[in-house]
Amino acid sequence: MSERKRVAVLISGRGSNMNSLISAAMHPDYPAEIALVLANKPDAGGLAKAEEMGIPTAVVDHRDYKGDREAFERAVDEILRTAKIEIVALAGFMRLLTPLLVNAWKDRMLNIHPALLPSFKGLATHERALDEGVKIHGATVHFVSAEMDDGPIIAQGAVPVLDDDTPATLAARVLSVEHQIYPKALALVASGKARLRDQRVATGAADASQADARLVVP
Ligand code: GRF
Fold first, then answer.
1. How confident is the model at residue 212, as a pLDDT?
2. Measured between alpha carbons, how far is 199 from 205 in angstroms, rounded to an integer?
């Protein structure tokens, strides 16, 4: 299918979300192919997994660009363009981005965050959710804007918070939802079904039964 969108997945670590995107894209009807996995750390665990699955990989080590975030991002951007990438999916990519890369990929760069945005931006989301005593937690896929963990929301999935949860048990429950919503969100964007209207993303969910297919509440 030549119209499949070419996607790069950017990682810093184990790459379980990367894995879920690669698995989804193996289906011939999926509207995107994972054409590249790029890491900012040579020892990112996901790199080996991607190679095993036959996906081209690249490394741009941010430590080679100390103090110059834009030079790092120019190097990343160059690789993305050379690989003819059309959509970028951040999946545990632990770098704060400058407007240089964000603007270059405006409306074509997605991120997954382990919380129901706009709550709990930043790190340690599961600890903070437990500290606040929230009863529902989850994950969000959103378009990337210049602000950290901000930008129009494409998909969210919710999980209950249980009495005996620890940050680790809650993280595991949220992670399984992440693995469901990221492939769905990428498919919505790659197929053109996700349309930006001001700061809201319309996904063709006009009634509750259609919305169920896009929101995962296990
Ligand atoms: C995920 O929880 C993701 O939401 C967050 O970083 C973590 C990455 O995990 N941004 P993995 O590398 O995809 O397993």
1. 55
2. 16
